[in-house]
Amino acid sequence: MVVETPDKQALDLLSSPRAVVVRLQRRVTYNASTATNHTHAKGTGYQAAVEYLATAVFWPGPACDGSASRRLDGEIQLPKNVMPSAALEHFSIAVSAIFAFQFPIHIAFSCSTMS
Fold it and tell me: With CB atoms counted within 10 Å of each terminal CB, which end of the chain scores lower, N or C?
């Protein structure tokens, strides 16, 4: 992954290996009740179970051309029991990668009193 921005502070925050979070998500959707074509078309009566199977690990990659970009390399170790996405009638399994940035936010407060 290449992070590119002319803002040096943003580049430092966003290109940290700990700032990038990619998780493998499995969503199982099903209808436990007797479904009809009418309820299936409306999507009513469906329930979903979500679980996160793995989290990617990132590390600094090779240097990029220019000072406004940085590269991160990474991988997700797939568990052996991960099955591909599938759908059948009123049941589906969807496996996807969820991407987000995570970093601490520090807010500085300044107080002054007037006499």
Answer: C
